[in-house]
Amino acid sequence: MRAWLCAAGGFLWSAAALCAVDPGAGTAPRTEFLAPAAGTYHLERIQPTADGVLLDVSARTRHLTEFTHGKITLLTFFYTNCEDPLGCPFAYVTLSQLRARVLAQPSLTSAVRFVNVSLDPLHDTPPVIQSYAKHFGADPHFEWSFLTSASIANLLPVLDDFGQDVSLQTDEHGHATKLLHHMLKVFLIDREGTVREIYSLAYLQPDVMLNDIQTLAMERSATAQR
Asked: Are 215 and 38 in contact (CB under 8 A)?
């Protein structure tokens, strides 16, 4: 993870419009430092990503590797009915701001994608996530995909692979019925499908994330010139 440290302060975000249930505003820590310039540091290779079987907004079966290879990817897990102002709504405010920054740099626009995978496949069916995705405004120049799964059983191996922390709600027979209380994480994945950074709440800063994306892009360019 990062070798540099930050001090935490407070920052007010208004994220209610991005959630199916109005969560109000939340106060999140922010970094009190200037992020290192892109390309002046190295992002470690944390872990490879494995495959998984998911569904897109049209209910087509898709392999996770389609969304973790070939581009620089930011992947996170979400609920369409998230009520935590420092959960999914905060993540989407941040990602929307980051998308605007990426779109302002033509060399990055086609090299970056966002991927959001639902943690609640029983509720978040393909039609539900398709409707939810419309809140974020599709852009023909930018790839932002929303995915779900056919069952919790299909989703659990994906969560385990990413080390995504969740708690399970089970029925009287011990069968999983819902995933609860997930810890907000955003995974930065390089073109080869390797996780290079994991952002927790304190590091979900558009400027920091943009510099990391640019650093990976520069890394690829330097490799191609050798």
From this structure: yes
Digit-coded pLDDT (tens) for 136-155:
877 888 999 999 999 988 99
Name the 3-class secondary structure at 110.
coil
Could you give phi then psi for residue 91, rounded to 5 degrees?
-60, -40
Block residue for tokens 């330097």: 222
The two tokens of residue 130 are: 């398709």
pLDDT above 70 for 171: no
* Residue 91 and residue 186 in contact, taking contact as beta carbons nearer than 8 Å: yes
Q: Whole-angstrom Cα distance, residue 221 to residue 226?
A: 9
CATH of domain 11-224: 3.40.30.10
| pLDDT 10s digits, 177-206 | 666 556 789 999 999 999 999 998 878 889
Q: Is the pLDDT of residue 212 over 60?
A: yes
Burial class (CB in 10 A: 0-12, 13-18, 19+), 176: middle
CA angle (188 as vertex; 30, 210 as ends), nearest 5: 55
